[in-house]
């Protein structure tokens, strides 16, 4: 990427450098007027969605409702300035809230006044970790979370979240518990204590939300409503439910008559800039949770950012994304919020509603700020069961059986690590569950490479090509055995190859020449090298010549360097 | 290996089956008289070596001297019957004794009467684990201990053992400690308390042992002694030192005059058959240590067994070896012994002294039994410093700098995991050290495969061969980019490839066709498959056609199975 410098190119190159670190310059400096209407519509719709969602996810994380709104202003602005996706909707998301609840819940009870402070410290840690990883160009570590592990983790988390909200939906008062099984038991046990009025409102909310999601659009279309009206109404489903249920509880005073639990007073006004206080003990206690949130949040977020960007041929830079998300979390930490990331479904809505640039997110943030200043009194009678219904309907979409079926069909090992992650998250908790999942997927990969595919091959006609004798009609010779191993050689699989070759030689006493085709060997580690040399010596005494063929360039270079080629005999290696 | 059954072949095949599980039938049923003299000489020499060594390693493990002798009778017999190596010298070894001392030392102090019982339970567990792994054909797990890790572990263990014996050599009374650094500090601190008479005897013993090992053979040869006399004398070095020092201490009453520590009364008589008593708590406490001893003992043992067997073109079966070693450990458990394995240097001596069959080990066991019945009173005045000298000289040979140098030259990753293991064993202890080493080697492998070698290739003349454009003079075309990735595609490296391809396309706007050569791809996991499909869609919208070429048979089969080939376009994949 070095170009001959021309007059003016330095300035341009400086602009290029600058927009690499401040991606918003790209769209702001060349803002096109035709993008404005889409950005405004999307900004409004995302705000309509975000108001109930952010409050619901704050409650899910064990925090007061307004904290969700606090986490939906500055984080959005910072991500819009520093993130590379133009349409990602950053803010509170369900999975991260679950991780927050379990991570902090291990340290202090929900009722502890330190709980909120810990959530802010957690956001600070997540922000620092993500920023640090981004600056150190460590984005690749997220690659070790395989698709199978993420899928199993999200499905299990969705179940835990859904079940956890069931008690709010039914108006049950249960102690919080992390384990899926314990939760299931507690709910079953306390079933008779259900508050039926609460449950009816919750079920009604769920019913309307599902109806709005699945059918309302078609119905409105049939009634001839213009398309640009339909989208806001359909996407406004959660807000409509919130307004409807609030009016219902307020009108009938259901909070007093039927003990329907309501949100109560939500403090009005913007969050003040605060510095979360902490000591090193708290930092080290929260570090594992922060690490998991940093990675899981990043993986979820970048997946949706990439998939949406590719639809418009825009590019997402993984390390810059980490910086953008890190800045968003630092913003949350300093404005009384809690960890945030890019939400999958909300980003899709933002994109579909016409968001073209980060301006949409800036508009959303502005509307959330207005809500905090003027509208919080309206949430007083909002029943908690309605927010629970919002969460349940949202996480229902995260349950993903299809991926498991596809993997089961294509690759049992992937399906297995998905299943292990799923069960481990349900059985032993979200944090340990994902660690078990990652370990399983890595061990399965090692297991797979430790038993490489090895084929006895023959010559195709008179060509220089060799193919598997079991798959192709090829020429073989009585004194020559040609074997191809389809894996790099390293300590965990070299004995496997050795045993295969020993057995092959023992089964064919006529063999005088053994040729190992190395075209699929991308490296040979020191253990494998030693095994090869030992085997060569043994075969030599047994009267069998051992040749290495089609050794790749980089592998050959290293073998040359240590004199292996000379020791082996340069006529026996090519 | 299915052969057409002929008359009589069933009996032969039954014999073949039987000797697979009882390998001694192979040599016993066809015993050749010319093998007898070699077996007898080797049996005697191994016994001469084993008497002092087994007592020394028992003391090293924190056990009374006779326990070492107990562990050198039945285990040898059982291995000779069930193991596949004909020359492996099973019994107490230094590294395993160190692992025993640290593993049991964590649970009870040296002086606890339960210590001996725990050693027997440990032998029982090791025996069951090895036998179980052998029967389940799980021998391959030992492959995950890379040569680098084993080398670093053994070198560090040798240092710890040597330093640990220094206090006995100098007659210091120090509390036992696992950490190398703590030990070094304690010895330095107590230096003035050195018992100089003890130290002199120890240094003298060491001097003689090194002299015998390095020079005595040449000297005797120069004096014209026949070769079959020289070997027993040289190999008898340890026994000569033991006899000499015992006479010295006894003659001058150095134990009373100079407080030289002696072995004292060694109970006479064969061990009785005992069942070690235990409860589940003890079993679970000892399990990690047992697991490490099982694997480390097996890896050390099979390495020397294979290398010696290959010199005579005999075969070692890893799983049957586990059964043989497991039986030996069960034998130790039931006769008051402690965990054993095949010793490296002793096996080499056994081999060099002419051992042809397992009969040599049976003779050794018989001589150890005779020693226990008749000779134990002679060990009363044996000074402990002499045994310490024996151990120090033996483990000096285990310090291996050469392997590190070679690996450093060939492969920094291997050298790094060797170094990490070495330092971790010294710094945090033998058990955690080897675990850290294994984790490091596996992570380095994953790291390596997560950043595969990717080459832009061009066509060689008009052939169907493609080579790296940076290494060869090849043809390229302006609208076509051909890329070869030298690694299987899985979750940890698929994003790396994706980024490479995206960047390549972005750098060359003329490209209309992207061809990925898959000849080095041995499998594609579900995550990678998804990435490929997403990338294909993106490239499509960007006007670039994405082709897969030279897909291997097994990979193609699986892609066919899930309909990937049809989705991709069968004209674009080959």
Key terms for this structure?
five-stranded mixed beta sheet; 5% strand; homodimer; elongated; two-stranded antiparallel ribbon; 25 helices; 574 residues; mainly alpha; Transcription Regulator spoIIAA; disordered N terminus
Walk me through the structure:
The structure is a homodimer of 574-residue chains. With 574 residues, the first copy, chain A, is mainly alpha-helical. Chain A is built from 25 helices and seven strands. In chain A, the strands form two sheets. A five-stranded mixed sheet of chain A has the order 4-3-5-6-7, with helices on one face. Chain A is elongated. Mean pLDDT of chain A is 87; it is low at 1-9. The interface between A and B is large, with 69 and 68 residues.
Rounded to an integer in angstroms, the radius of gyration calculated over CA atoms of chain A is 30 Å
What fraction of the residues of chain A are assigned to beta strands by DSSP?
5-15%
Whole-number tally of structural domains of chain A: 2
Main sheet strand line-up of chain A = 4-3-5-6-7
* Count of extended strands of chain A: 7
In this structure, how is the largest beta sheet of chain A organized? 5 strands, mixed
Greatest interface (CB-CB under 8 A), with counts per chain: A-B, 69 and 68 residues
Structural class of chain A: mainly alpha
**Shape category of chain A:** elongated
Low-pLDDT segments of chain A: 1-9
Number of helices of chain A: 25
Helix content of chain A: 55-70%
Q: Averaging pLDDT over every residue of chain A, what do you get?
A: 87
Terminal CA distance of chain A reads: 35 Å
The oligomeric status of these chains comes to: homodimer
